[in-house]
Amino acid sequence: AVRLHSLLVDGTDQVAADLALASGWELVVPLPFGEALNRAINAHPATAEAARALLAGQPTADPDVDAHADAIRAITARAQLFELADRDAEVEALWLASLAAPQDHAATRAFETLASENVALAGRVMIERTDLVIAVWDGKVANLPGGTGHTVTAALTMGTPVLLIDPAQP
Question: ∠ at Cα 30 (83, 155), nearest 5°?
Fold first, then answer.
């Protein structure tokens, strides 16, 4: 059976996941957080109130955020999930603090640092279970933990073949 491993990042990852499911492939998703927290973060709410609503499984006042959360829920409902949820309480507290005080750069940096570490770990879990990494990457940022460049570098370091697609010159 053909299996796609994906972190379900916005854009290419979600399009690939939809195509894989439509083709009858198995979809395996190592989430950097528990499912509810992952969905809430990746729906991109602008306020702590909207984030809390998402975490509680409730609608927000923003239809775009709700639609994004629903799209993520629809994909993850059809996937096998591996949730790296052991630090969710800490991640959630830092995330809510950063949303409550967007001018507090230290709070934002603390959340982004921990979130990036978890995403990098989820990427490593994905790489360890993959025969080939297909990466759509512009080559611009390589040092962001958990980012595409970091994942490509980790895959190559681990000896996993990488098919690199430059979106500017596919």
Answer: 140
CB-based contacts of 109-115 (< 8 A; 24+ apart in sequence): 114/87, 114/90, 115/32, 115/33, 115/41, 115/91, 115/146
In this structure, are residues 130 and 136 in contact, taking their beta carbons and an 8 Å threshold? no
Assigned token pair, 144: 């962001």
pTM value is 0.89
CB-based contacts of 107: which residues, under 8 Å, 6+ apart?
94, 97, 98, 101
**Per-residue pLDDT reduced to its tens digit, 4-55:** 999 998 888 999 999 999 999 999 999 999 999 999 999 999 999 999 999 9
- Specify the residue for token string 């950097």: 32
